[in-house]
Write a structure and sequence with these properties.
The chain has about 150 residues and is mainly β. Helix content is about 10%, strand content about 35%. It contains 1 helix and 9 strands, in the order αβββββββββ. The strands form 3 sheets. A 4-stranded antiparallel β-sheet has the order 1-8-3-6, with no helix packed on it. A 3-stranded antiparallel β-sheet has the order 5-4-7, with no helix packed on it. A two-stranded antiparallel ribbon has the order 2-9. Strand 4 and strand 5 form a beta hairpin. The N and C termini lie far apart (about 75 Å).
Length: about 150
């Protein structure tokens, strides 16, 4: 019992002693946050094999549309400004305002269209995780019953 108290006391004492820094400070490095968005839930990402990572800024003018399409790889998007309205393959509608983010799954089963129904431009910062050599998006027909 006494040994357990001694070990516990040592562990507690170590928590009070400042630790030596093992990292070195950076020099000549600067960074700019382009966009920050909070997802509604957990983000799940997976890739298979070599992956092209593409980062783009997309601006959709008021009244503009991406057209129906899908992505061969997963997409992570942050809405920097405006509000993006997406219609998904099941005809459901998701609205994502500035400061929010979303993930679009890969594959032809996940067709969608993005629209700017507002009066200000929608600005998106988008990261694509694509199979090596794949296009960013593939045009698709609207699902039956969706507009």
């Amino acid at each position: 019992m006494r040994k357990a108290f001694v070990v516990a006391g040592c562990v507690a004492a170590l928590g009070l002693v400042p630790s030596a820094a093992v990292a070195t400070p950076g020099t000549g490095v600067s960074a700019t946050v382009l966009a920050k968005g909070t997802s509604e839930g957990a983000l799940k990402l997976k890739t298979k094999g070599a992956t092209d990572v593409v980062v783009r800024t997309i601006t959709i003018a008021p009244g503009g549309s991406t057209g129906w399409h899908y992505h061969p790889g997963q997409v992570i998007a942050v809405v920097q400004s405006g509000t993006l309205t997406r219609t998904l393959d099941d005809c459901s509608v998701e609205t994502t305002p500035a400061g929010k983010s979303f993930v679009e799954p890969a594959g032809g089963r996940h067709i969608h269209v993005g629209r700017n129904l507002g009066s200000d431009p929608v600005v998106l910062y988008v990261t694509y995780l694509l199979p090596e050599g794949a296009p960013i998006s593939v045009d698709a027909d609207a699902p039956a019953g969706c507009s």
